[in-house]
Write a structure and sequence with these properties.
Blueprint lengths: L2 E4 L6 H16 L6 H4 L1 H15 L4 H5 L1 E7 L4 E8 L11 E7 L8 H10 L5 E5 L3 H9 L3 E7 L9 E5 L1
Parallel strand pairs: 4-5
Antiparallel strand pairs: 1-2, 2-3, 3-4, 5-7, 6-7
């Protein structure tokens, strides 16, 4: 399967929102349920987020770096974003903050290419769901290791996160 990586634009926002919500459904659908997470309201929220993130001059856009993966036909099939860490005491200067690819694209090299185009081989941190062993194995292949720090976001206490660093 061929793909390209580039910088997303505002025209990509609806597709980015769709891929983002599909990614959440694949990763967290076993714990989170309902339209709040995976239906129209979730897509509408993600459209708002991506619009803010990609609007020139918006605070989130100024601090963020973004990549989009496209199929050979140009369809958005993956996305990645990086911001400075939001941790009170950051252990790295950069965080891999968002990474999702459509399930049909798992194992194609797209996710690796998105990460490499976004942060290269530079030191970074990320948060990954504690029960997402597949994602943890993927990040380990990119040189990330769990550092023993765990957090629980009150918005979704069912999904504790582990921090990984390299």
């Amino acid at each position: 399967m061929s793909f390209t990586i580039d910088v997303p634009s505002l025209a990509d926002v609806p597709a980015l929102a769709r891929v983002h919500v599909h990614g959440w459904e694949v990763a967290y659908g076993h714990v989170l349920h309902g339209e709040e997470w995976f239906g129209g309201p979730a897509i509408a929220r993600r459209i708002e987020h991506w619009t803010r993130w990609l609007t020139p001059g918006a605070p989130e856009a100024d601090d963020g770096t973004f990549r989009v993966g496209r199929s050979g036909e140009g369809t958005v099939v993956g996305l990645a974003a990086s911001w400075p860490p939001r941790d009170p005491e950051p252990v790295r200067e950069r965080e891999l903050s968002v990474l999702y690819v459509e399930q049909a694209w798992h194992g194609t090299g797209l996710a690796r290419a998105l990460v490499e185009s976004l942060i290269g081989q530079e030191p970074a941190s990320l948060w990954v769901a504690e029960d997402n062993a597949r994602a943890q194995r993927f990040y380990a292949k990119l040189g990330f290791v769990a550092d023993g720090v765990r957090q629980v976001d009150p918005r979704w206490p069912e999904l504790p996160d582990l921090r990984m660093v390299r």
